[in-house]
Amino acid sequence: MKTHAAALVLAASLTTTACDAAPAGGKKDGRPQAMAPTSTSPARPLATDAPPPTARDILRAGWDGAENGRYDADRKVYVDSEPGDGTNETGVWHRLPFTSGGRSYFTGFTAMTQVEAAEAHGARKPVSLGQATFVLEDGRWRAVDSGFVGELAVNASGNPARIDMDQSGLPPPHRVEDGRMLFALRLSDFAQGTTLGSHAVLLFDPRGMKRSEARKRDYPNGGWSLVAVLPTGSDNAAACDGGAVMTCAADRGTIRFEAAGTDLPDIRVRRAGTEIVAPGKVRHLGPDNTVLYRYDTARDEYVVRRER
């Protein structure tokens, strides 16, 4: 879908607060972009009676007028067919209200998935995440930005991880001195009898909004980017059959942003539960079992700094 890729210009998996579509993640020049998110343990929006943007509002604002597309009102998705490129569907993936600089924002994240002709590419494409951001002005939500956010990888079944319906216990948005904000979203995937948990980390940078002159130079894709998808848990209950087939193990990680004196904060993943360490043997995880990720400016991504 040319227009979506052009207008929504950045790998792992994310569903919608009221799931109108499919999931996705992203990069720039082969590397994750470090720029703009909002929250999922939402920073409370300013008080307003204005109804939030609808699925169609979000898709229209982020679609940029696809020539070959049509809106399916029943399913709330845009369907786009490109000659030789199969058919793609774009729907709302997640909705996120937040505040920044005293203003009330609402971002609708979109996900574009390939539903036909995957064989033409040898494998199913990653899910492409986009966004449409609105600001509350004079009692109305006005679209002020749209752009590509990132790509989410797909598993062997061709499916990406989905946003977990349970978004409780997430860290509050982390604010950087220059106005940027980091947000976390909990994702879940299922493969070979194991449920896999992860967290997507999104960065919102108001300098990348369309109205900024820097948009044309340093922020061609808008104010949002997916900067990381971090593994944070697994549960093989569906495969172990109560221990009859294999050893059962389940662990769940929580994440925390920690200021580190670097461009972006460290991310600490604390693990709890059990993990398999040898056939028939598990170890119990606790407060001492953590993984620390640090943002590497040169690589433009989060990398493991310490694991124990």
Describe the protein's architecture and organization:
The chain is mainly beta and 308 residues long. It is 7% helix and 45% strand. The strands form two sheets. Strands 7, 8, 9, 10, 11, 12, 13, 14, 15 and 16 form a ten-stranded antiparallel beta sheet that branches. It has a six-stranded antiparallel beta sheet with strand order 1-2-3-4-5-6. The longest helix has 9 residues, at 55-63. The chain is globular and about 60 Å long.
Distinctive features:
10-stranded antiparallel sheet; 308 residues; 6-stranded antiparallel sheet; globular; 7% helix; mainly beta
Q: How do the SSEs run, as a string of H and E?
A: HHEEEEEEEEEEHEHEEEEE
**Helix-and-strand structural type:** mainly beta
Helix fraction bin = under 10%
Looking at how many chains there are and whether they match, the oligomeric state comes to: single chain
